[in-house]
Write a structure and sequence with these properties.
Layout: E1 2-5, H1 12-21, E2 24-27, E3 30-33, H2 36-46, H3 53-63, H4 68-76, H5 79-84, E4 85-90, H6 105-114, E5 117-119, H7 123-127, E6 141-143, E7 152-154
Parallel strand pairs: 4-5
Antiparallel strand pairs: 1-4, 2-3, 6-7
Length: 157
């Protein structure tokens, strides 16, 4: 999953960090938050020989996996996030198309249902998601001001 964050608000980095700090990952009989300090701690737990903070942070970032439930609960519990973050997933083998087993059909559908955006290169992937789910009609969008680029925000609640 990917988070697409609007840079419109002047405090978007502080709010994004506040949002990320609420995401958690459980491993090694412990819980880790998505903050630099906690990611370094996770990196060192996963690879105890790491002494450099930068290497520990990089390794912790590769180990941190937020659950879909934690992400959605955190997203829905923070009004700023609902206004300024889009959740995106890849439609290729690294994303929902990689969830292929028959037993994983529901999981794939739930991941796609949670997403506002699916990065998809083929018409088959795009057509798999009916417009009635979360896609928005152009009439329900308004252009956001700024830098001359077309950006849209839903006018729906």
């Amino acid at each position: 999953m990917h988070l697409l964050v609007s840079p419109e608000a002047p405090d978007h980095l502080a709010e994004l960090n506040r949002f990320l700090s609420r995401l958690t990952f459980q491993a090694f009989d412990d819980e880790f938050a998505c903050t630099p300090t906690e990611l370094m701690r996770l990196g060192r737990k996963a690879k105890p020989n790491l002494t450099n903070d930068e290497a520990a942070l990089a390794h912790g970032c590769t180990q941190f996996k937020v659950s879909r439930e934690n992400l959605i609960r955190t997203y829905n519990g923070m009004p700023w996030a609902k206004e300024n973050i889009l959740i995106a997933v890849a439609g290729n083998a690294d994303g929902t198309s990689g969830v292929r087993e028959a037993a994983d059909t529901t999981l794939r559908q739930e991941i796609e249902k949670a997403a506002h955006v699916i990065f998809a290169g083929s018409a088959k992937q795009r057509d798999r998601r009916p417009l009635s789910r979360k896609s928005l009609a152009r009439s329900s969008l308004r252009t956001l001001p700024g830098s001359g680029r077309q950006r849209y925000r839903s006018t729906q609640a």
